Automatic annotation (TrEMBL):
Its main location: membrane. The lineage of its organism: Bacteria, Pseudomonadati, Bacteroidota, Bacteroidia, Bacteroidales. Keywords: Cell inner membrane, Cell membrane, Membrane, NAD, Quinone, Translocase, Transmembrane, Transmembrane helix, Transport. GO terms for cellular component: NADH dehydrogenase complex; plasma membrane. This is NADH-quinone oxidoreductase subunit A. NDH-1 shuttles electrons from NADH, via FMN and iron-sulfur (Fe-S) centers, to quinones in the respiratory chain. The immediate electron acceptor for the enzyme in this species is believed to be a menaquinone. Couples the redox reaction to proton translocation (for every two electrons transferred, four hydrogen ions are translocated across the cytoplasmic membrane), and thus conserves the redox energy in a proton gradient. It comes from Candidatus Odoribacter faecigallinarum. GO terms for molecular function: NADH dehydrogenase (quinone) (non-electrogenic) activity; NADH dehydrogenase (ubiquinone) activity; quinone binding. Its EC number is 7.1.1.-. NDH-1 is composed of 14 different subunits. Subunits NuoA, H, J, K, L, M, N constitute the membrane sector of the complex.
C-alpha cells in the first residue's frame, strides 16, 4: 500500500465522519428543558442513596459472555488460516475448545446460567 493511497483513505474517512456529524447536528432537535438535565431523563427524582448492591449473578453472566466473546475473536483468525496450519493447528484449537466447553459445563453445573 503506497503512501498516497493511505493518505486518501485517511482523508476520506475523516471527511465521512465530519459529514455524518454535521448532518446529525443539522437535523437533531434543539429543545431543552430542566428535566432533561436531571440524572435520570424520566423526570422522576431519585430516592435514597445511589449506592446499592447488585447480585453476583449479573457479574458472573457478564464474565461468561466475555469469555465466549473472546472465544469467537480467537476462532475467526484460526478459521481463516486453518489450511496452512495442518493437523497441529487443528489439535491446538480442539484443545482450546475443550477447555472452553469444560468451563461452560462447570458454569452450567454451578447454576451460573440460570436467571433468578
Amino acid at each position: 500500500m503506497n503512501l498516497t493511497l493511505m493518505v486518501v483513505v485517511i482523508i476520506t474517512a475523516m471527511a465521512l465522519v465530519g459529514i455524518a456529524l454535521g448532518i446529525a447536528r443539522i437535523i437533531s432537535p434543539r429543545t431543552f428543558n430542566r428535566q432533561k438535565g436531571e440524572a435520570y431523563e424520566c423526570g422522576i427524582p431519585t430516592r435514597g442513596g445511589s449506592w446499592m448492591q447488585f447480585k453476583a449473578g449479573y457479574y458472573l453472566f457478564a464474565i461468561l459472555f466475555l469469555m465466549f466473546d473472546v472465544e469467537a475473536v480467537f476462532l475467526f483468525p484460526w478459521a481463516v488460516t486453518v489450511q496452512d496450519m495442518g493437523v497441529d493447528g487443528l489439535v491446538n484449537v480442539l484443545f482450546f475448545l475443550v477447555i472452553l466447553i469444560l468451563g461452560l459445563a462447570y458454569a452450567w453445573k454451578k447454576g451460573a446460567l440460570e436467571w433468578k
